Amino acid sequence: MTLRLRITALAALAAACLLTTGTASAASNGEAWTKTVPIVDTPGPGGLLGFNGFDVFAEQAVAARFTVPADADYRLARIGLWMMNNSETEQRKLRVMVQTDALDEGGPESLPSGVELERWSAPVQTLGWSPVEQFFVTRSGPLLKAGRSYWVVAGSMSPPLIDPVWTFAKNGNMWTTTSRDGAWQTAGNGAALTLRVDAHRVKAP
Fold it and tell me: What confidence score (pLDDT) does residue 48 get?
């Protein structure tokens, strides 16, 4: 897998950017929602090599896969990523999407399908290699089906060297992929990216 990494040995304390979790309106089909729970919550950034991650720029999007627990459907509440910035002065825009898995859309392998459940756009919220947990709160509460896999995709129109950086977690493994020449490379199970997915468990009426 071709990738671009940024590595630093800085041991500065990561500053958390906490946003209030939004609650989307319940669907009109009589389903009831529970309180928000994390269905994915990897460790924060750091580890033996310090802070490092995937560059997110015009020529490279980055995606991480997660799987919904098999016991119930869920409604998305928010996504959280620990981000850094290769610029000390500019805060380029970041696009974050939740997409279905290509296997569920008739594709031959597990990759982002291009079918978006929700999309956000916001400037990266930090300057330099000081990671900040950046949240993206749902507006529509899309349904995440029990046992299905989904992809969180990060992209940017930024040029390299001044682009956002999606950090790796301190430990753990995760299925990830990066794009090259506009196409996703075959996904692999490697170092986990920082990712939090909060959702409401759907109860049967």
Answer: 84
